[in-house]
Structures are given as structure tokens and as C-alpha cells.
Amino acid sequence: MNLKFLSIVISLFCIQSISAQESKNEATVIDVKTATTSEETAKTAATPIDFKKQMQDLKDQEKAYLVKLEADKKTAKEEAINAKAKADADKKTAEKEAAEAKTAAEKTAKEQAMAAKTKAEADKKATEAADKLSKDKLANYEKEANAAKEAQQKIAKDVEKLKKEKEEADQKLAESAKIALQKNTQLEEKIAKATAEAEKKAAAEAKIAEEKAVKK
């Protein structure tokens, strides 16, 4: 847009110079003829181009372009800020959900461990009482003891499973935090890039304005 504007200004100055030269040549030819013809030709000469109006139109176009550019910069900045706020909110939500999952897993593991311990203690007392009975009851005790052992093994497996789920939840939390950090970094880079481009455009426009002022 700036190059196009500069080309238009240069073209207008060229046209103005050519028109002025042509007018001068025509005036010279007319002077060689007769004074009457010169007077008549002067009356019928073409209306000169209104360069002042054209320059004002170009200035208005440039002003409108600058206003639009400023609005675009403001919109881009607001979008970047909103995106960063959303990324921060997503990060907090992910951290909260992971923390809740971790707490729930720990609570479940603790409750199951307590239940297993209580059951094991009850089974142990029951088997101790059964030991005082007959051999049949002793056999039953051994059977129940084996069952209790299997139950303990099952509980141990469940506890290991819950530990694994807890580790996975911690890993997901770390991955979510990493992703959120990456998004935040990308947004900051985009903001920096947009700011640099805006400053570059502003510098170029200032340079054009300075050149225009020098030409005037």
C-alpha cells in the first residue's frame, strides 16, 4: 500500500511537469502566430488538473489506511491477550482436575487398604478362635487363612493398580502443564512478532511521511 501510494505521488508530479511543459510549448507556438489567436487560444485552453485536490484525496486515503492499520493492530493485540487468558484458564482447569483425580485415587487406595487391614485382622482373630476347636475347624481355619491371604494379595494388586493410576494422573498433570506452557510461549512469540511488524510498518510510514515533507 505504501509503495503504491508513493508511485501515485511520483506519477502525479510527472504528469504535472509534462502538462506544464506542453502548456509552455503551446503558448510559444501561439505567440509565434498572432496576438488575436493567442488571446482566443488562452480562452479555450483546457482546464488545468486540480493537483491540490488529488493530493488531498491521497492524504485522506493514507489517513484512512493508517486508521485501519491501527484498528487491526489493536484487534490482533486483543486477540492475543484473550488467547493467553484462555490458555492460562485451561492450564488452571487441567491442574485442578489432575489434583482432584490424584486426591480421589489416594483416598480410594487408603480406604481399600484400611478395609483390607480390618478384614485381615478380623480373619486372623476368627482363625485364632477356630484353632481351639477340632481338626475340622482347624482345616476350615487354614482354608479361611488361605482365602484371607488371597484377599490380601488381591488388595495388594489393587493398591499397586491405584498407585499406577496415581502415577499416570501425575504424568498427565505434568504433560498438561507442559502443553499449557508451550501454548503460552507460542502466544508470547506471536505477540512479539506482531508488535515487531507493527513497529516496522510504523517506521516505514514515518519515513514516507518524512520524505513527503521534504518534497513539499
Structural write-up:
- The chain has helices spanning 2-32, 35-44, 51-130, 135-215.
- The chain has 216 residues and is an all-alpha fold.
- It has one domain (50-215).
- The longest helix is centred in the C-terminal third of the chain and has 81 residues, at 135-215.
What is the strand and helix layout of this fold?
Elements lengths: L1 H31 L2 H10 L6 H80 L4 H81 L1
Q: How many domains make up the coordinates?
A: 1
What value does the Rg take, in angstroms? 44 Å
Instruction: List the quaternary state of the chains.
Output: single chain
**Helix-strand pattern:** HHHH
Instruction: Look at the helices and sheets and give the structural class.
Output: mainly alpha
Overall pLDDT score: 78
Q: Note the total helix count.
A: 4
The stretches of 5 or more residues where confidence is low (pLDDT under 50) are: 19-45
Outline: rod-shaped
Distance between the termini: 21 Å
Helical proportion, percent range? over 70%
Strand content: under 5%
For the secondary structure, the number of strands is: 0
Largest beta-sheet details: none
Briefly say what this structure is:
Helix content is 94%, strand content 0%.
Keywords summarizing the entry:
rod-shaped; 216 residues; mainly alpha; single chain
